[in-house]
Amino acid sequence: MSAMKRRYSASDVALAQFERAIAHMDLDEDLVAYLETPKRELIVHFPVYMDDGRMKMFTGYRVHHSTVRGPTKGGIRYHPDVNLDEVRALAMWMTWKNALMNLPYGGAKGGVAVDPNQLSRNELRRLTRRFANDISLLISPEGDIPAPDVGTNPQVMAWIMDTYSVAHGYTTPAVVTGKPLSIGGSLGRAEATGIGVTITATAMMKKLDMKPEDTRVAVQGFGNVGSVAAHKMWEHGCKIVAVSDVNGGVYNANGLDIPGLLAHVAETGTVIDFPGSDRIDNRETLTAPCDVLIPAALEGQIDERVAPDIRARLIAEGANGPCTMEGERILLDKGVRFVPDILCNAGGVTVSYFEWVQGLQSFFWAEGEVLERLTRLMAEAFEHVWRASQDKNIDMRTAAYTIAIQRVVDAVEARGIYP
After folding, report:
1. How far is residue 190's CA from residue 120's CA, in Å, rounded to a whole number?
2. Is the whole model's pTM more than 0.85, yes or no?
3. Mean pLDDT, residues 147-164 taken together
4. HEC profile for the chain?
5. Closest among 398, 248, 329 to 310, alpha carbons compared
6. What is the per-residue pLDDT across 291-304, written as a single tens digit (0 to 9) for each?
């Protein structure tokens, strides 16, 4: 979902955020060049037979940003706008996200330039299996573990796992995460990102003395992340006043009935025409009268044209890179507070880590254990970032980056540079 035609480079945003953080660190110039450069980038062009017998060419990507702290971890997205620049930025963000959560991973990302909604199930299966085959020289349980992202889901992960397993002659559950429970997925994984958004958003609300019953929330994007975050924030007592999806948005100043909205979406496939709401567009969702804004769609949604009209006190970034540097600068100058993406939406990769561990051990945890561990790690990471922000008098994003970058630096210095 795009509020407007993209006018920026995702890599430029990722690098600008990195550079803003290292301005508060004492790092060698050569080390900085090493940290900001991806380790490897793979581009594949591959054919897929459509249901009508035609063969169509597609382009896919897999980028490893860093392998210093462990195997790379990051999602695979299917979206028409996927390109190397975007995947490169997302891989860098995954490096910092994994390091911030202190997970034993480096950062990766992948994707295919395709609209999955335009493919039949059989076409999607053939595309996924061919793409999985073509990136199989990079993925493995010990080297690079994909997961779902925008436009992909547990079924896509199941096809990737099966393709890899058939090629190797034995079932390998730990090669991907976000799988169906029937083949080694983890309880709690599907909701993990949205739950993590809620954990960190409510933690920040407490720091700002924002009481849930007095807090209005707007959510851009009502997919796996936004819908869960909206429901959990509603359960905390917040009033969800605006929600949008790819088709548009709905608004009710008195609060939307979120369980009813979830049922409406399950029946119709969209939030549009939900009874008791007014129709709004995507931009109006971002600028709706609210206290907390949760952008949970794609990157670059809040730029210098949207930011001046945003009325939220707090932005909890459910999406990766939802703010451009210009947009964020305007919001920081207005006194808006952030829970940055590498902290806010890290619940998904955290439970992906739990799933990977369970798969390697063939020993699975109860859902309560998964959620207890997730809550503890997210709360600890939030407090660490909050303290760094207060101690250094810097914004939360810069604080999060300094923590994450330092952990990667420590690993580089411990391992050394080969040869």
Report:
1. 23
2. yes
3. 96
4. CCCCCCCCCHHHHHHHHHHHHHCCCCCCHHHHHHHCCCCEEEEEEEEEECCCCCEEEEEEEEEECCCCCCCEEEEEEEECCCCHHHHHHHHHHHHHHHHHCCCCCEEEEEEEECCHHHCCHHHHHHHHHHHHHHCCCCCECCCEEEEECCCCCHHHHHHHHHHHHHHHCCCCHHHCCCCCHHHCCCCCHHHHHHHHHHHHHHHHHHHCCCCHHHCEEEEECCCHHHHHHHHHHHHCCCEEEEEEECCEEEECCCCCCHHHHHHHHHHHCCCCCCCCCEEECHHHHHCCCCCEEEECCCCCCECCCCHHHCCCCEEECCCCCCECHHHHHHHHHCCCEEECHHHHCCHHHHHHHHHHHHHHHCCCCCHHHHHHHHHHHHHHHHHHHHHHHHHHCCCHHHHHHHHHHHHHHHHHHHHCCCC
5. 329
6. 999 999 988 899 99
228-245 tens-digit pLDDT: 999 999 999 999 999 999
Round to the nearest angstrom and report the end-to-end CA distance of the chain. Answer: 45
What are the tokens at 93? 């963000």
pLDDT tens across 195-225, in order? 999 999 999 999 999 999 999 999 999 999 9
Active-site residue (options: 39, 56, 73, 109):
109
| Domains assigned to the chain | 38-174 (3.40.50.10860), 191-344 (3.40.50.720)
- For residue 84, give the nearest of 66, 107, 65, 61 by alpha carbon: 61
Q: What does the pLDDT read at residue 300?
A: 87
Please indicate whether residue 56 is annotated as part of the active site.
no
Task: List, for residues 369-405, the tens digit of each pLDDT value.
Answer: 999 999 999 999 999 999 999 999 999 999 999 999 9
